[in-house]
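Reminder to self: tokens first, then the designed residues, so the page reads top to bottom the way the pipeline ran.
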């Protein structure tokens, strides 16, 4: 561990690799006091220093939570093949991050939540659905079904057929050469040019087709029902330029209670980085009701 701006810089193991992260503590911690904590996951090929990570971490710290943000394997400063982003491996990384955070002296090991945006939101929901140690889940601009997500993202004339052709071409390329065919991140997930400023330095720009196939097959909606009775919050913009809003609506239909879905006008895919006050106010109120930083949440009902 080492002290640095933006929290205490840490490393932890996952899948035989070393992942890089940062733990930030809230002000006013008493000696030996334990608080609820959140792991905050970055988006598609991004890093722990993205605005969609730093903004919610800062809010959560102000509200009294310990936070851990980290680079998934193959991203940022973590080890692993750069650009190889496999959904279930990111779930493994998140579960290992949880194990690491449970050992922190200021963390209540039974009260650790997970929050994520976009790709990170899908990983957050899936992790909470398969790991009962996750005490709460927050998904922002997330998705639950990779196949239908890609259909919505590649919706122009002939675009989805070209996307499927890319997947097949990548499969044949690996059969012929034993190597991955690399493609642009924007061939996998189209992002309008006016939003590409949110793709920060150190983000991965070239990825193997296997990343797209992993996302295509990934279905967080199949496990979201397992999260209940632990609380779950789904946030999405009413009109999302990247991930179809329908993805969060469909996940909500499959979720158990307590689960809330909030749709926001006046914001877009990178809602936390855009600084929309209503998004932050909604998160603050939901946390107070279902997952406060100190003590236990009031009984539902």
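Designed residues (301 positions):
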């Amino acid at each position: 561990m080492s002290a640095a701006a933006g929290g205490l810089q840490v490393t932890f193991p996952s899948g035989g690799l070393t992942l890089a992260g940062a733990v930030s503590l809230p002000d006013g911690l008493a000696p030996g006091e334990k608080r609820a904590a959140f792991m905050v996951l970055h988006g598609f090929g991004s890093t722990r220093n993205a605005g969609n990570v730093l903004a919610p971490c800062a809010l959560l710290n102000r509200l009294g939570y310990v936070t851990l943000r980290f680079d998934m394997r193959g991203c940022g400063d973590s080890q692993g093949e750069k650009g190889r982003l496999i959904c279930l491996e990111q779930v493994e990384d998140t579960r290992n991050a949880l194990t690491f955070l449970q050992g922190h002296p200021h963390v209540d090991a039974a009260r650790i939540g997970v929050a994520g945006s976009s790709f990170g939101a899908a990983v957050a929901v899936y992790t909470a659905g398969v790991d009962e140690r996750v005490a709460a889940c927050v998904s922002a601009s997330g998705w639950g079904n990779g196949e239908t997500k890609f259909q919505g993202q590649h919706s122009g004339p002939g675009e989805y057929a070209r996307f499927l052709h890319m997947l097949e071409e990548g499969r044949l390329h690996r059969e012929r050469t034993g190597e991955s065919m690399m493609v642009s991140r924007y061939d996998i997930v189209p992002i309008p040019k006016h939003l590409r400023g949110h793709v920060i330095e150190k983000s991965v720009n070239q990825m193997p087709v296997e990343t797209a196939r992993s996302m295509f097959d990934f279905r967080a909606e199949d496990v979201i029902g397992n999260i209940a009775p632990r609380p779950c919050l789904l946030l999405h913009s009413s009109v999302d330029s990247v991930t179809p809003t329908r993805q969060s609506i469909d996940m909500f239909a499959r979720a158990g209670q307590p689960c809330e879905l909030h749709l926001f006008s006046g914001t877009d895919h990178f809602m936390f980085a855009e600084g929309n006050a209503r998004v932050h106010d909604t998160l603050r109120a939901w946390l107070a009701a279902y997952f406060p930083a100190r003590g236990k949440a009031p009984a539902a009902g």
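The two ends are 43 Å apart (CA to CA).
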